[in-house]
Amino acid sequence: MVRLTKIYTRGGDGGETSLGDGARVAKHDPRVAAYGAVDETNAAIGVARSAVAAETLSDLDAVLARVQSELFDLGADLCTPIAPDEAPDKALRIVAGQVTRLEQEIDKINAGLGELSSFVLPAGTPAAAQLHVARTVARRAEREITALAATARINADALAYINRLSDLLFVMARAANKRGPGDVLWQPGATRG
């Protein structure tokens, strides 16, 4: 259990922060950027949950509540470099079962949606629009994680998790729109005159 007694430490005033293993790195380090983007994804999901709750989409909200907790797991995973001799369960890591659960939820939600005939614009109901915002933030987090992976060893399940999460947010946005006006589809070249 985490216990916080003091909110500020002044330890970052020089532009550095501590990783999960105690190492000090610059606040612009790729590892910090990766777990920072995961934190932004979590905040975007929190905003989306407000809209989801307002539209009484409790089935989606329950999944998002669990995902927010798992994003803290993902942040902890990314914050702690993998030691060459790391023993299983030494550090908190995303596991394959969490990725599989996201895939099952994607399949379940997607089964109730129609086929797409065009790309979907990030619009529609307030819940759908906020879920699309969260999806794009998750995609940015994925880019930050892949940038980290280019220079450091990371947990493959962590990368798979963030990839599936953006897919989950996409189908959730479509599900929210299905209960509203429907998907807003791209019409290629429709305004060229």
Would you give an account of this structure?
- This protein is mainly α.
- The protein has a single domain (24-113, 121-178), classed as Hypothetical Protein Ta1238, Chain: A, CATH 1.20.1200.10.
- Helices cover 57% and strands 3% of the residues.
- The chain contains five helices and two strands, in the order ββααααα.
- The chain has a two-stranded antiparallel ribbon with strand order 1-2.
- The longest helix is centred in the first third of the chain and has 25 residues, at 30-54.
Q: What's the domain count?
A: 1
Give the beta-strand count: 2
Task: List the helices and strands in order.
Answer: EEHHHHH
The rounded Rg comes to 19 Å
Question: How big a fraction of the residues is strand?
Answer: under 5%
Label the structural class: mainly alpha
Please summarize the sheet with the most strands.
2 strands, antiparallel
Q: Unreliable segments (pLDDT under 50, ≥5 consecutive)? A: none
Task: Give the mean pLDDT.
Answer: 92
* Assigned CATH class: Mainly Alpha
As a percent range, the share of helical residues equals 55-70%
Q: What is the overall number of helices?
A: 5
The strand line-up of the biggest sheet is: 1-2
Name given to the CATH homologous superfamily? Cobalamin adenosyltransferase-like
- Classify the oligomer: single chain
Choose one word for the global shape: elongated
Q: Distance N terminus to C terminus?
A: 60 Å
**CATH-defined topology:** Hypothetical Protein Ta1238, Chain: A
